[in-house]
């Protein structure tokens, strides 16, 4: 033992001695080549350095780069054996020491290697290329001047990697060097486009090549690996965007081929390219002709970690051999660094019953389960079971390992390709990678699920599931066409039914994989994939039952011993309760008894899940919960709600898994932090989507939110605040005027108990917790979700506390907090108990105007929305409180509001849309003494010009629509000189040019307001043209506006007719003569439909419409009678004819 202890540091010492000897050697003066003694010494020294085992512990790093440069100076290029050895030494030492070569030595060593490739015999080229690969690794930007020699038309790497190259080892070494050149370095320029194209085509041709009989399997695998790594580097580092159909099709074809490379029992022939199917839901144009369809997409979202580069094995630079893909593509469940999941393998799940329930996964026709029938029989192949000898078995095992690495490399490359291809293009390739139900008598097509179900490597199965998950991410629009609710009986299968069939097959295969999987890492990926699928499928268009199978299969995994599986299982349950909520199928699932699906779990189920009341005992709420509304309760609490609350508030009873230690937690008393966070998110989603079910436990859930906000962990506090916000929003939705919830089934207004608990508890402290801006923002949003009736019932000091907190937060330096506070003030200003308080309105106005000038666009947008609400309040107070409020309100503040809103109307569209709304309200609110005031005159003129220019601008539809309504509000103010002031003509001209302005044009109540005859007739003609063009829209989203638009135009036309003067009639009659039939049909339709409510919120029934028409006939008849034949116009007769036709049509309908 003592001898061993003494000799242990010796390798490090001998290694240093050899390096010192090398450093002491100098080129012999006057000799072009070393003599025999020097050559022998170099041979021995190089051999010793290459064979010496070096450990970094306790050893100082030598200046490897300088020593290598010196070694090359000692070796002349005509000494090929020494050249070969010095190149081996370069490769060995750079990998061993993992050093970055400085630019000076890099230039010398690269020049040496390139010269050696040009001058030395071919037998040395493999070693030289290995040295070159080590030199250029992560040094691509420093190699620019050598790229023509390496990657030019006759470049060395291009020649050696050519498909005609007979030496596969040489070709592999060249491809590896090329792949290393393609690695990107952050902050450094990337390869030029021409070199990228050369490399891409080279890698593609390598992947398209077939293995010849004289090439061994392992060498061919390593060649494919290097090519795949090269393409992945091009896609990642060069941020390459694949646009051409042939380029995409060729790449996807080789990736699919390599995905199945060496998969036991499977041999597939792939075409050189795949072709996309046209997707009508993305584009009206038909893409390139298709032969085979398929797609995929990956959208990097804010709460997902970027794909890890993967750890490289020490001393290998990750260049060849087994590649550790690390967490490539793994997605963080909760999106926080501290919650990074450690995905370890767990061979045996404590919930054994899922394996016995494979028959429950899906009810499918006989024969469809053959995909997994042979799964367990050959999934784990051991050498002892094979017919090979031990030596042969070892070779076979090594070969299978290399083949698995190729499959993993292809899948990792596919992940990168998904980010490089436009979504609508990528989904054209859906059927090549996603399974579809096999036809009668036809075999199952190979897909990503084939790998997930059949690959013997757990890591490869996990990679395939990551790719499938990336394809499903953001697929909602593509899958939205799926439909199989009705059995189709056609000669062909509609596209919607094909997609629905694919969705069903995905559910079936993923649930089969779930019950067959033993690796916890892969199991986690299966559950994540299911969550992505569930989030994007239009279940309301499909036959029910799919979610029930997923629900029942995932329940046992909640108690899996690996915490990652438990977290992802909760994520899946959260996806189920959030997708298209509320779904009848999910409502039934939530009402199931808690034991359903868990009755066979045995000891794996924590005791807390079996105690139906223990979770409630842990929450000593003040007072009793509100009466349970009819139809909202069952004999025991909702299983999912009880589960989540138990995980959040109850102490842990046992150690669930070793991997728990990887998670920071508020206290070891509770479950791991990620599990509690996911449970909080599921609770919030449950409250949001199925509030009638959750409201029975309203106070208990409030207590959960309260307890979470009292904890020390900011992430737990944050999600507690989000739960509180959802609870408040749920009550608000019930009390909306258009709510379908019966009054006796709503949460009682005595919900004031709930808010008293919050305001006496952690909420004020959370709002003042300045180090955590996101938490403050969430608490602000929660405070703004209080029911107005509940707020008015709060004690006076609590009301003052809320207002004071919000006014204070409006001065926060953090834009997120400031925006939330500005929005909350915009909510509070509409509360009836606050809006009549002139002092509160003034304080709020000053705070909002302060935020309206903030440098953050988000803050300004929220402030503009709140200013719009505040000015709505001014109009309401003017109508309900009369002159007293107008006189009390500060003229100076009103002027400030007018000027600020005018300035904001020139801001970006999100600010502008509410700024013009505010302008319309303020101009409507102004009194005659304001308008006569010289200080107001200029501000009024500027604000009107701002509105007119906005109507005529190229802003978004919403902005221009709001500007039209704002001008309509202006017209309601009788104190403004409408029809006389110069801006009147401009306003009418602007409104006449915009189809959406018809409601504003029907507001002035006097003919004088419309100005001259010429102007009146221009407005009339513009409305007639707008009526005729109201159906000329190509945008599907515009069709919903067409009916209300025609209603508004017809109202405006009849309004104008009821005010017309005799001088207006000739132009009106001329228009009727030319377009009488068209106008008649639209007016008859207007009378018939009787739309009760248009977008302006006005209620008009059939009798009101008839009354307006009769009033116009009577008014025009009187004018025409006064003319006594002086003019040959009979507009009244035309309108009488319209009314008669309408009356006849109504009688026929009633008959």
From TrEMBL:
Bias kind Basic and acidic residues: ranges: 282-292, 313-325
Superkingdom per UniProt: Eukaryota
Domain (DUF4042): residue spans on this chain: 406-586
Name of the protein described by the UniProt record: HEAT repeat-containing protein 6
UniProt region (Disordered), positions on chain: 281-329
InterPro entries in alphabetical order: ARM-like, ARM-type_fold, DUF4042, HEAT6
Ranges of biased composition (kind: Basic residues): 302-312
């Amino acid at each position: 033992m003592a001898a061993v202890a003494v000799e242990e540091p010796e390798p490090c010492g001998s290694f240093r001695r050899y390096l010192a000897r090398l450093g002491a050697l100098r080129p012999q003066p006057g000799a072009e080549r070393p003599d025999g003694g020097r050559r022998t010494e170099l041979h021995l020294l190089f051999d010793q350095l290459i064979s010496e085992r070096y450990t970094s512990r306790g050893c100082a790093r030598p200046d490897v780069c300088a020593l290598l440069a010196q070694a090359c100076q000692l070796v002349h290029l005509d000494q090929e054996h020494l050249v070969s050895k010095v190149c081996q030494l370069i490769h060995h030492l750079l990998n061993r020491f993992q050093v970055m070569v400085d630019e000076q030595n890099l230039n010398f060593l690269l020049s040496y290697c390139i010269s050696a490739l040009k001058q030395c015999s071919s037998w040395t080229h493999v070693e030289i290329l290995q040295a070159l690969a080590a030199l250029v690794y992560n040094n691509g930007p420093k190699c620019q001047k050598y790229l023509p020699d390496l990657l030019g038309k006759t470049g060395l790497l291009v020649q050696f990697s050519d498909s005609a190259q007979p030496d596969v080892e040489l070709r592999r070494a060249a491809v590896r060097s090329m792949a290393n050149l393609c690695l990107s370095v952050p902050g450094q320029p990337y390869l030029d486009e021409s070199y990228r194209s050369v490399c891409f085509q080279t890698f593609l041709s390598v992947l398209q090549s077939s293995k010849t009989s004289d090439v061994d399997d392992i060498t061919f695998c390593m060649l494919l690996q290097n090519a795949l790594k090269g393409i992945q580097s091009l896609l990642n580092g060069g941020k390459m965007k694949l646009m051409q159909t042939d380029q995409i099709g060729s790449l996807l074809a080789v990736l699919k081929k390599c995905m199945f490379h060496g998969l036991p029992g499977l041999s597939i022939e792939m075409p050189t390219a795949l072709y996309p199917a046209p997707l009508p839901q993305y584009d009206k144009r038909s893409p390139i002709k298709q032969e085979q369809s398929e797609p995929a997409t990956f959208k990097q979202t804010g709460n997902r970690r970027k794909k890890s580069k993967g750890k490289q094995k020490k001393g290998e630079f990750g260049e060849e051999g087994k590649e550790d893909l690390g967490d490539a593509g793994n997605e963080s469940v909760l999106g926080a660094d501290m919650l990074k999941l450690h995905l370890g393998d767990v061979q045996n799940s404590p919930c054994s019953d899922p394996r016995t329930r494979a028959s429950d996964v899906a009810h499918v026709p006989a024969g469809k389960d053959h995909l997994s029938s042979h799964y367990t029989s050959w999934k784990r192949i051991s050498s002892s079971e094979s017919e090979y000898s031990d030596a042969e078995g070892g070779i076979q095992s090594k070969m299978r390992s290399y083949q698995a690495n190729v499959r993993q490399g292809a899948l990792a490359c596919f992940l990168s390709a998904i980010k490089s291809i436009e979504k609508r293009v990528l989904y054209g390739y859906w059927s090549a990678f996603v399974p579809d139900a096999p036809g009668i008598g036809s075999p199952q097509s190979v897909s990503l699920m084939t790998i997930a179900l059949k690959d013997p490597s757990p890591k490869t199965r996990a990679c395939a599931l990551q790719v499938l998950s990336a394809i499903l991410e953001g697929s909602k629009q593509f899958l939205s066409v799926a439909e199989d609710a009705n059995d189709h009986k056609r000669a062909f299968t509609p596209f919607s039914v094909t997609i629905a069939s694919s969705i069903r097959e995905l559910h079936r295969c993923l649930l089969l994989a779930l019950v067959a999987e033993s690796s916890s890492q892969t199991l986690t990926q299966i559950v994540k994939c299911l969550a992505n699928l569930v989030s994007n499928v239009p279940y309301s268009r499909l036959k029910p039952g799919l979610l029930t199978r997923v629900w029942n299969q995932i329940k046992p995994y909640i108690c899996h011993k690996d915490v990652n599986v438990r977290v992802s299982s909760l994520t899946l349950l959260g996806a189920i309760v959030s997708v298209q909520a509320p779904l009848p199928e999910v409502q039934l699932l939530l009402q199931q008894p808690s034991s359903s699906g868990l009755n066979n779990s045995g000891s794996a189920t924590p005791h807390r899940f079996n105690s139906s009341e223990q979770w409630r005992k842990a929450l000593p709420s003040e007072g009793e919960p509100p009466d349970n509304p009819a139809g909202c309760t069952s004999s025991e609490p909702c299983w999912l709600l009880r589960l989540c609350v138990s995980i959040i508030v109850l102490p842990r009873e046992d150690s669930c898994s070793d991997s728990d230690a990887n998670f920071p937690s508020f206290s070891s008393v509770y479950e791991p932090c990620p599990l509690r966070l996911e449970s909080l998110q599921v609770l919030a989603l449950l409250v949001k989507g199925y509030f009638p079910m959750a409201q029975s436990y309203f106070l208990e859930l409030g207590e959960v939110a309260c307890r979470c906000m009292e904890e020390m962990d900011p992430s737990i506090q944050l999600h507690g605040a989000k739960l509180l916000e959802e609870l408040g929003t749920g009550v608000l939705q019930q009390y909306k005027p258009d709510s379908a919830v019966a009054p006796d089934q709503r949460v009682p207004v005595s919900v004031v108990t709930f808010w008293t608990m919050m305001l006496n508890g952690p909420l004020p402290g959370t709002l003042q917790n300045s180090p955590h801006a996101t938490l403050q923002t969430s608490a602000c949003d929660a405070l703004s979700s209080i029911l107005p009736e509940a707020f008015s019932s709060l004690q006076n000091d609590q009301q003052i506390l809320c207002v004071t907190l919000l006014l204070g937060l409006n001065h926060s330096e953090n834009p997120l907090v400031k925006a939330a506070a500005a929005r909350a003030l915009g909510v509070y200003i509409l509360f009836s108990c606050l809006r009549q308080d002139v002092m509160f309105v003034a304080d709020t106005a000053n705070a909002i105007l302060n935020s309206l000038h903030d440098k953050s666009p988000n803050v300004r947008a929220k402030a503009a929305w709140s200013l719009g609400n505040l000015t709505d309040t001014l109009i309401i107070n003017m109508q309900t409180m009369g002159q007293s409020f107008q006189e009390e309100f500060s003229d100076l503040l009103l002027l400030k509001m007018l000027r600020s809103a005018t300035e904001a109307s020139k801001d970006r569209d999100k600010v502008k849309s509410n700024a013009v709304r505010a302008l319309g309200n303020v101009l409507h609110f102004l009194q005659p003494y304001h308008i006569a005031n010289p200080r107001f005159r200029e501000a009024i003129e500027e604000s009107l010009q701002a509105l007119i220019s906005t109507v005529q601008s190229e802003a978004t539809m919403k902005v221009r629509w709001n500007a039209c309504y704002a001008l309509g509000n202006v017209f309601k103010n009788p104190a403004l000189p409408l029809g006389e002031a110069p801006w009147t003509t401009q306003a009418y001209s602007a409104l006449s040019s915009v189809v959406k302005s018809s409601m504003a044009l029907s507001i002035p109540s006097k003919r004088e307001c419309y100005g001259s005859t010429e102007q009146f007739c221009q407005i009339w003609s513009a409305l007639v043209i707008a009526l005729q063009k109201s159906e000329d829209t190509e945008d599907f989203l515009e069709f919903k506006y067409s009916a209300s638009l025609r209603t508004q135009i017809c109202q405006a036309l009849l309004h104008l007719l009821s005010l017309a003067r005799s001088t207006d009639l000739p132009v009106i009659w001329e228009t009727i003569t030319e377009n009488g039939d068209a106008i008649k049909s639209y007016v008859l339709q207007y009378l018939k439909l009787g739309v009760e409510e248009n977008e302006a919120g006005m209620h008009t029934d059939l009798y009101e419409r008839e009354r307006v028409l009769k009033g116009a006939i009577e008014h025009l008849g009187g004018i025409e009678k006064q003319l006594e034949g002086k003019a040959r116009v009979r507009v009244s007769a035309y309108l009488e004819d319209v009314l008669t036709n309408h009356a006849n049509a109504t009688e026929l309908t009633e008959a």
